[in-house]
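Design request, tokens follow.
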């Protein structure tokens, strides 16, 4: 045991400074800076095309032969919408104050364009797989468009560590805790049930995951939204004061209450920006793996669909959590009586929901946690399968079989064990993964802009459903597969 502790401490001595440096001094500014740059270069596409974005999202049903645009959207949203939407927002509120919510909204607004750029690139450079489902994502567009196989391999490895293993253990751990608190179900029993449910879906392939996400994700998002709207309606007279509090505290105005830091502009910005970035994953490189699966007629169409996912995740679902907490008596009591106290985010959300709904609130949150985290496990596996197939192209079937076993093992281990070390290691891997992807999409941005320009030109010409011809758009059309995007002159 002493040897293990020594080994863990040695690992932390290397991991902690690297992870802190990546997240604190590189990634937050790189993500936010890229979002602002892409917003300018796309001429504010998130504002100009928001209505069209919503229409494309809910009408993109595909041909029935592969994964539809809406199914790919649901899969990516399943990964985005996880326990962080319930716990992470609460923690940002507690540490950064209500002003953190304002900066979370700002981050989401610029994140639209980043999500569009990376998902459009994933669609452009996707490949057709033998199972009829497309494959693509950062690993594919980095190699095909930039020619950097080593960079693609690094991204795939980082994603497998974070999404394939660690995050799945963390999600199952959160589910087990929620079930134990609400229903007194033993952690091991929750683990067994989760393994069985996960196996039923992931052994059905990527189409099975997409179909499951298509059914569960809209249901859980709508249910959570309805509860938040009910809370809002029941506390309607307090809403103007709540909104004023959010805006004022974002800029350092208001009484210094809550967490140990009060309403510091710096702390509010840091926590709001991080929460927004971690939640909507714009620029992280995860969602493009789902975007590439979609069977659509133009890459930009799916880029718009994935961009709309940022709106649903952050501006809708995360805001719902903020409303529930800020309008509860629990938040006021904690701010007044427990400044500086360490608190687990999910506890604050649960207590706030109980304050509004009574004992049903605890049950509702437990069910929400289950659905949010379970679909995240499925989406995480989907992303991992795409990247392990990329790494082990000749032995892809064996690699995927081993991945399924590893994922199910992590789900079981996560439900009964504390995984703080694995989670911290995953944070480092995700930080490196995101940095790799952001560097790539900054270099490849002109390609995505040309694809968007082509899409908008066709719509101006009266074409309701634009089609993509790489010959007229890309400088090097030979980099994309002709059986995916046929060239009219070939």
């Amino acid at each position: 045991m002493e040897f293990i502790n020594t080994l863990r401490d040695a690992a932390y001595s290397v991991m902690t400074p690297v992870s802190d440096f990546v997240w604190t001094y590189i990634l937050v500014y790189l993500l936010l800076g890229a979002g602002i740059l892409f917003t300018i270069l796309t001429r504010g596409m998130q504002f100009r095309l928001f209505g069209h974005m919503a229409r494309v999202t809910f009408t993109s049903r595909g041909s029935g032969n592969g994964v539809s645009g809406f199914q790919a959207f649901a899969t990516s949203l399943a990964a985005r919408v996880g326990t962080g939407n319930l716990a992470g927002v609460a923690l940002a509120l507690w540490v950064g104050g209500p002003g953190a919510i304002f900066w979370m909204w700002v981050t989401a607004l610029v994140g639209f364009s980043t999500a569009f750029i990376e998902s459009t690139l994933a669609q452009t450079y996707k490949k057709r797989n033998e199972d009829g489902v497309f494959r693509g994502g950062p690993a594919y567009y980095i190699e095909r468009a930039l020619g950097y196989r080593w960079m693609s391999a690094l991204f795939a490895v980082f994603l497998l560590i974070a999404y394939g293993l660690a995050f799945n253990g963390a999600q199952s751990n959160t589910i087990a805790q929620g079930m134990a608190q609400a229903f007194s179900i033993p952690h091991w029993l929750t683990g067994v049930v989760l393994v069985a449910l996960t196996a039923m879906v992931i052994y059905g392939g990527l189409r099975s995951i997409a179909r499951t996400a298509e059914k569960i994700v809209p249901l859980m998002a709508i249910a959570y939204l309805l509860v938040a709207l009910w809370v809002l309606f029941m506390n309607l007279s307090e809403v103007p004061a709540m909104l004023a509090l959010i805006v004022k505290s974002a800029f350092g105005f208001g009484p210094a209450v809550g967490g140990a830091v009060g309403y510091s502009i710096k702390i509010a910005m840091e926590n709001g920006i991080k929460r927004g970035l971690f939640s909507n994953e714009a620029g992280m490189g995860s969602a493009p793996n789902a975007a590439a699966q979609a069977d659509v007629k133009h890459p930009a169409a799916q880029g718009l669909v994935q961009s709309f996912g940022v709106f649903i995740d952050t501006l809708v679902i995360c805001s719902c959590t903020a409303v529930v907490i800020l309008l509860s008596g629990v938040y006021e009591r904690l701010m007044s009586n427990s400044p500086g106290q360490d608190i687990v985010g999910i506890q604050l959300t649960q207590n706030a929901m109980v304050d509004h709904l009574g004992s049903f609130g605890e049950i509702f949150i437990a069910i929400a946690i289950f659905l949010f985290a379970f679909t995240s496990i499925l989406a995480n596996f989907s992303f991992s399968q795409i990247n392990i197939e990329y790494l082990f192209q000749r032995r892809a079937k064996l690699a995927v079989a081993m991945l399924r076993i590893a994922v199910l093992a992590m789900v079981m281990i996560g439900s009964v064990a504390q995984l703080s070390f694995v989670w911290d290691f995953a944070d480092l891997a995700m930080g490196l993964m995101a940095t790799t992807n952001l560097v790539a999409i900054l270099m490849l941005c002109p390609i995505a802009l040309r694809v968007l320009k082509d899409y908008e030109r066709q719509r101006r010409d009266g074409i309701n459903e634009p089609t993509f011809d790489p010959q007229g758009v890309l400088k090097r059309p030979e980099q994309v597969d002709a059986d995916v995007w046929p060239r009219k002159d070939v």
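Comment from the thread starter after seeing the answer: thanks! Residues 8-477 form a domain with the Amino acid/polyamine transporter I fold (CATH 1.20.1740.10).
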